[in-house]
From TrEMBL:
The keyword Coiled coil does not apply. Keywords: Membrane, Transmembrane, Transmembrane helix. Residues 347-380 have a biased composition (Low complexity). It comes from Actinomadura miaoliensis. Residues 347-405 are annotated as: Disordered. The chain crosses the membrane at residues 20-42, 301-322. This is DUF3068 domain-containing protein. The keyword Transmembrane applies.
Amino acid sequence: MTRTTPDPAVLPEVYVRRPVGMALIGLGAFFLTLGPLVRFYVADKVVVAPLNRYAVTRLEARNATYFDTSTLKTRSGATLLATNTLRGDVRANNGNENVAVWDSTTNIVDTANPDKPIQIQGYRMAFDRRTSELVNCCGVNVDGDNNVRMSGYGLLFPLGNVDKVDYPFFDMTTRQLAPMRYDGEDTVQGMTAYRFVQQIPNTRTSSLDVKIPGRMLGLGKDSPPQKVDRYTQATNTVWVDPRTGIPVRHRQNIYSTVQTPDGRGRMVVAQADLATIERDQQSLVDLADANALKITAVRGYLPFGALAAGLILLAVGGRLALTAAPGRPAAPPPPRRADGRFKTVPAAPKATAGATAATTATAATVAKPSAADAASGAAPPRGPGEQDPPRHPPAPPGSYAARHR
């Protein structure tokens, strides 16, 4: 196996690329963890109804009929304006941040006499900020009645998750639960909305403290004043943004009467088809679009963007950290002797140019024997530095060495 050592020319690149690569790998792992965290944890914390909510919505009904209690006359062909004011009470939940408490007040007036309200309705509702389902706490009431038990949904649909199914909605007028049935799709101010319809059957809503003249109830001129109860039936239609669960348009077709306990006398006290005015529809659509962007960001853009960024950073960091820089073969190790130690080669002595030439000439002269020496068989002269071979001392007479020499 051949080892490689980095080229000194690329050492700075090696020392920079690997730490940067490891840092990118760590950052990529962080983003891969951040994606699911945002989608499954942060989104549930962000996609909630606000505690502090303030909104004013106006509904208008043309050619309406209502009973004027100040003049005891029925007015027809009137234009009614219902102004709903919604306020959030941030302290009413007693520190429970999972519950929002909203107060709603609706003031209905005849536009011909706006300073004189025809009817004022009010209620307080508390609901789960994530599911929008009503809860009974924090002083919920309808027109001051604290004995009302609310259930189902109130003003909002499930946040960010509206399906084409029926939802149970609590009607504040009749104080009963009735299904809000899916009825198709419509376009509201350029936005696709789901249409839901709720049918409220004729229901006794209150008992009036005043008595109504019998002639007004159709019982004849000589009939005495009668004690009556109020009954209401309605068709409520809501157009809701499926992305957020925010209603962007309302329509309330109301038919209200008073009648005697035996049912013989009856009189229409209100008949109106109220619908959200165009300007407020646009405001609600803008609000829904803004909330839809936030929901899409925490449920889609941010999680998937973090996952994509994490994968890219891991790929780039792995390439920088795990890919070796170009290198060159290392010098082979020195040879070893039989005992395992490295062989050492003595360094040749350095000599000057003149000395080297003289030494070379001398060596050539000494190394080459003369013709006379060759003919006589004499040993050639030894060069400088050469030594005679060691001589053996004479063996004693009669020894083994003397006999075999």
